[in-house]
Amino acid sequence: MKATIKQIIKETPRVLTFVVEPETSVSFKTGQAMRWNLPGLKIGRLFSVACAGGENMHELRFTIRIFEDGKFTSHLRGLKVGDSIELSGPYGNFIFEDTRMHDVGLIAGGSGISVLRAIYCNVLEKDTKHKVHLVFSVLNIDEVIYKDELAELAKKYPNFTYTIVVTKPHPSWQGHTGFVTKGIFDQEFKDYKEEFYICGPQAFIDCSEGLLHEAGVTDDRIHIDHWTFYAPKLMK
């Protein structure tokens, strides 16, 4: 189906959010992805939908890291409001089930925050009483995607909290620095009673999953966006 770009938001120097309007309504589950194709390109790519799922949705949001040498994403900087793209899907089994009764722990590395945004929006928009806590690891202070939105949501919703971990320390940064550690997770999640959702680079996923296991979290409460449905021909 065709979709029209309605808005482009510069989140960081390397990340853009595209708000698009499909020509027909779309139904998908929170956590799923859609495949993008551009006119003139033979390849496509899957991107997580960065908003809560639902039936007959008329607006979708995608937050995408731009690789300047990427075979696909390098073409996205040239898109403008009003341009058309081709969408197909939804795809993927990384699905947030809001019927679960646990509080939610979100663990994001870099642009992996995009699919986790869909989850915290789902919880907050439905006005549930479940707590949502996000631990967001970024390379440096200029890479905090959704910086203003996160601050606003924390003020608006008492059940939403977040912590940013900056890998490369900066003199102005007063929070956690370096890589995520058991000490950081102990401080942030304390009794580890949440249902956990992880997305980010594979090394980050492996580290975070290992720390949760070390804390005694069982596999049935750990959900990982591994992109196992990602076909090799769908390039970055």
Task: Give me the secondary-structure topology.
Elements: E1 2-12, E2 15-22, E3 26-28, E4 33-37, E5 44-48, E6 54-57, E7 60-65, E8 84-91, E9 104-109, H1 113-125, E10 132-138, H2 147-156, E11 160-166, E12 176-177, H3 182-189, E13 195-199, H4 202-214, E14 222-224
Q: Can you count the helices?
A: 4
- Domain module count: 2
Q: What would CATH call the homologous superfamily of the largest domain?
A: Nucleotide-binding domain of ferredoxin-NADP reductase (FNR) module
State the distance separating the first and last CA atoms: 21 Å
The CATH architecture of the largest domain comes to: 3-Layer(aba) Sandwich
Helix content: 10-25%
Major sheet size, sense and barrel closure: 6 strands, antiparallel
SSE class: alpha/beta
Q: Can you tell me the overall shape?
A: globular
Cα gyration radius (Å)? 17 Å
- Overall number of strands: 14
Describe this structure in words.
This protein is α/β, with parallel strands linked by helices. The chain has two domains: 2-91, Translation factors (Elongation Factor Tu (Ef-tu), domain 3, Beta Barrel); 104-224, Rossmann fold. It is 19% helix and 34% strand. It has helices at 113-125, 147-156, 182-189, 202-214; strands spanning 2-12, 15-22, 26-28, 33-37, 44-48, 54-57, 60-65, 84-91, 104-109, 132-138, 160-166, 176-177, 195-199, 222-224. Strands 5-4-8-1-2-7 form a six-stranded antiparallel beta sheet, with no helix packed on it. The protein has a six-stranded parallel beta sheet with strand order 12-11-10-9-13-14, with helices on both faces. Strands 3-6 form a two-stranded antiparallel ribbon. The radius of gyration is 17 Å and the shape is globular.
